[in-house]
Amino acid sequence: MGGNIKMGLFDKKTDEEKRIESEALKELDTYKEDTFFKFRQLLPLYGISNMGFSETRFFNTCFKKIKKEIKNNSLKSNEIKGRFTELLNEKYGEPMNQYEANKKLQEEKLKPLKENEKKLEEKFNIKFQNRVWFKCAIEERKNSTFTNTSRREVDNAYVFIENNYLEILKESVFLKSNMGTRKIYFENVAGIDYDARGKLHLSSSLIINLKSADFIQLKNVPENMVNAIDSRYNSFLHHKNNATQNTVVIEKTSSESDKVDPMKKIKEAKELLDVGAITEEEFDKIKAKYLKDF
After folding, report:
1. For site-directed labelling of 247, which of 98, 190, 201, 269 has its Cα 20 to 30 A away?
2. Can you tell me which residues the record assigns to a coiled coil (predicted)?
């Protein structure tokens, strides 16, 4: 009898409630396993780029809470998904759409870069933000026509890629004459050579040969920046060639238009004379003029 009293005190669930609880717990285990990877994919919609320790702890806490609610008969198997979403929104707020999420993640990704650019702007007093730039090692070799010797300079530098030129800012200079930025206009570039590794590696070096016989070597340049320089330089050459061709066509057309057929002009003047539009004297002057050119 004492055993029956003990069961009555501690086992208050009916068989039906036990069955519902058992089904819900099995569903919870399955849902937790399936949702872990989906949870990682959902996080960007809440503005979280990576799943760290705090997110993993929150995930496990959610399912502990849901499990407790199932055991208290306050949650059924078909309510697990909705409950998890509810806890997720309570923690991180309403999810964004994919466009908003991508935009926010991009802003978060660029935030350290923007902060670094601000520091560089304060340090060098030159604009970094909203420009295409990279940092690399630079070697310059300058030839002297007076001493017939060359001078080699090695430094770290920031390189800015513009439409018609590269702007180079050396990080540490020891000579006052080397201070400030230097612009390498594509107009003054004889050619750009790439190293043997070319564009198939994460970083390359390239040599900018100047028409003055000097050259600049940029070392450890990121692949995307090598491609950017290559694209801007080739675009400059393309537009330059088109402009040259157009000039030749214009000059040729102008030259052809300046040519006059003397016999044709005399013939036209004779027709005017025949109809009485000009006098014999005027015709003789026109004839003399074009026969002279002829």
Report:
1. 190
2. 96-123
Domain assignment present for residue 139? The answer is: yes
The CATH number covering residue 196 comes to 2.30.29.30
DSSP 25-65: HHHHHHHHHHHHHHHHHHGGGGT--S--HHHHHHHHHHHHH
Per-residue model confidence as pLDDT tens digits over 70-123: 998 888 889 999 999 999 999 999 888 888 888 887 888 888 888 999 999 998
Instruction: Compute the Cα dihedral for 246, 248, 253, 258 and give only its sign.
Output: positive
Question: Are 221 and 134 contacting, i.e. CB atoms less than 8 angstroms apart?
Answer: yes
Residues 6 or more apart from 271 whose CB is under 8 A from it? none
According to the model, what pLDDT value does residue 107 have? 80
* 70 and 160 belong to one structural domain: no
Report pLDDT for 203: 60
Structure tokens at 25: 């717990």
Quick: pLDDT tens for 2-38: 444 444 445 577 888 888 889 999 999 999 988 888 8
Q: What share of the chain is helix, strand, coil (3-state, %, to 5)?
A: 60, 20, 20
Structural domain containing residue 268: 262-293
Alpha-carbon span 24 to 78, nearest angstrom: 8
E-state strands within the chain: 133-144, 149-161, 165-170, 181-185, 189-194, 203-210, 215-222
Pair 148, 80 in one domain: no
* Angle, helices 15-42/80-92, rounded to nearest 10 degrees: 40
96 secondary structure, DSSP code: P
- Say which DSSP state 218 is in: E
Task: Give me 279's structure tokens.
Answer: 């006098």
- What's the average model confidence in pLDDT over 179-205? 74
Buried-exposed string 184-209: b where 16+ CB fall within 10 A, e elsewhere? bebeebeebeeeeeeeeeeebbbbbe
DSSP annotation of 174: S
**Angstrom distance (rounded) from CA 168 to CA 132:** 12
